[in-house]
Amino acid sequence: MLIEEAAMPGCVDKRSDYMAAKSSSVKVTLKITSLILRLLMNIIFYILVVILIIDVSRRAFDFTYQLYGPVTVDPAPGRKILIQIKPGETTMDIANKLELNRVIKNKYSFYLKARLQNLMIQTGTYEVYSSMTYKEILDEITNYKNSIIQDQEQQSEEQTE
């Protein structure tokens, strides 16, 4: 092979030029590919960040609207539900009970609304509707006079007299 290269010295130069050109074109291709991939990864990352921001904003708006807006589960007249509040139940227990019975949309917003208004929920059995707002429900369960059991107890006392 050395004899052939010595016989054709220009051929070796062409081959090495071809290899150098091929090597530099591969490097350029790799750089362009790397640039495109980084650009695509950045675009995907920023799209995901925007989607995340939109989702968090939507959830924050919904929660705030549930806290301060007139939120109901069903349109009027709604479903009638009896809720019994026992001594020792926490506000979160009551909120959980209301959410399980589909009277409220979110137990956390109801709990926070009750805590922010510093209301004392009274024990008893109350008649609530799924069409009531959080404020109406809180007005109902914070007034012992609205308790159905109390009404029945007063009626039985009146009958015995």
**CATH class assignment of the largest domain:** Alpha Beta
CATH topology type of the largest domain: Dna Ligase, domain 1
Q: What's the tally of helices? A: 6
* Distance from first to last alpha carbon: 128 Å
Strand content: 5-15%
**Approximate helicity band:** 55-70%
Q: How would you name the CATH homologous superfamily of the largest domain?
A: Endolytic murein transglycosylase
How many structural domains does the protein architecture include? 2
What is the arithmetic mean of pLDDT?
Answer: 85
Biggest sheet features: 2 strands, antiparallel
Named CATH architecture of the largest domain:
2-Layer Sandwich
Structural class: mainly alpha
Please trace the helix and strand order, writing H or E for each element.
Answer: HHEHHEHH
Shape: rod-shaped
Largest sheet, spatial ordering of strands: 1-2
Strand tally: 2
Radius of gyration: 37 Å
Poorly predicted regions: none
Protein name: Endolytic transglycosylase MltG
Organism: Mobilitalea sibirica
Keywords: Membrane, Transmembrane, Transmembrane helix
Transmembrane segments: 35-54
